[in-house]
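Input record (one chain):
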Amino acid sequence: MSSDPDRKATVFIVDDEAVIRDSLGLVVRAMGMSVHCFSSAHEFIEFIERHDVSSPVCLVTDIQMPKINGIELLERLTASGWGFPVIVMTGHGDEALKQRAEALGATFLEKPFRPSSFEEVVATCLRQNDGKKDAPYQDENATT
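The corresponding structure, as predicted from the sequence alone:
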């Protein structure tokens, strides 16, 4: 994987609730990482189809979302060959849902959770990052 060791990690957050996106975005920024937030799985899919994405990145997605839920998003990413770590979170989880997410390679995080727990899970996932897409992620907000 070709990644710049000096490049900040990026966390993608997909959740249909603005308050969750905003709160998690603040935590990620406080961790010293870049963050991009999306209100739907469709919006995220469009983004990654238009941008090059590589390590170190991590996706955090809610499961319960309209149209494309978090599990469906994870299935689409897996089918497309994306290999970055995914954290799925939900306040409506059950054991079958957790097993489904984990079978697809995701880390499961049940709401509500403490910011410190979220930070720990994100840091662990980024250490395990083994993204399969090799083109460098280009942050359109970055200065060159």
